[in-house]
Write a structure and sequence with these properties.
about 220 residues, alpha/beta, Rossmann fold, Arc Repressor Mutant, subunit A, 6-stranded parallel β-sheet, about 55% helix
Length: about 220
């Protein structure tokens, strides 16, 4: 049986090399390429023959983050299974990544065994969610999103504008002035959008904004 071909994409050299050592130590898998950003990952996938079976993507890479890279891989090589590697366990963050096409989600702070299990599951086209995340979320939303391919909770254009300005550090009064709406309306949009996305505070909003690429041109 041929080993599982794995592509690693992480902008931290130490992390990437450590992951390579862990994966290459297994008899049933091997790293065929490791790169520092999403653009390089796409270049490998376009030129590889055959392409890797599994792509392990850091979600916080520069130039092209993991979410954008996952969506692009789904477009050019849907046969490549994607595993997201992240420090964050926020519900909205995970939903966005899964909706972009990731087959698995593993926390960076988890043990190596979690990643190896995720790689094997992804190679079999089976979803995998980090055990810590699964316990917190009870696994319900994961099975629904992956099985039915439903979109994550949607927020309106106005709610998006409010959250983006909030992530940029603007106060309610500044947001109200920028959008020509009342402070009360800003508060309503903020409350509704955060409820829909499962965001609990400003830090969650900033993480979500980074994942969506809202702050790249700020």
């Amino acid at each position: 049986m041929n080993p599982i071909r794995v592509l690693l994409a992480d902008d931290h050299d130490v992390v990437r090399h450590g992951l390579r050592m862990v994966i290459d130590a297994e008899d049933d898998m091997r790293v065929v390429a490791d790169v520092a950003d999403g653009r390089q990952a796409l270049e490998v996938i376009r030129n590889a023959a055959p392409p890797p079976d599994v792509a392990v993507l850091d979600m916080s890479m520069p130039k092209m983050n993991g979410l954008q890279t996952a969506a692009a891989i789904v477009e050019i090589a849907p046969q490549v299974a994607i595993i997201a590697l992240s420090r964050y366990s926020d519900r909205a963050y995970i939903q966005a990544v899964l909706a972009a096409g990731a087959m698995g989600y593993v926390l960076k702070q988890s043990g190596a065994a979690q990643l190896l299990q995720a790689v094997r599951a992804a190679a079999r086209k089976q979803p995998y969610l980090d055990a810590d995340v699964a316990v917190r979320a009870a696994g319900a939303y994961f099975s629904q999103r992956v099985r039915h391919r439903d979109a994550p909770p949607q927020i309106t254009d106005r709610e998006t504008e409010v959250l983006r300005l909030m992530a940029l550090g603007h106060a309610n009064r500044e947001i109200a002035a920028a959008l020509d709406i009342s402070v009360k309306t800003v508060e309503v949009h903020k409350t509704n959008s955060m409820r829909k996305l499962g965001l609990r505070g400003r830090i969650d909003v900033i993480r979500y904004a980074v994942l969506q690429g809202w702050l790249q041109d700020a």
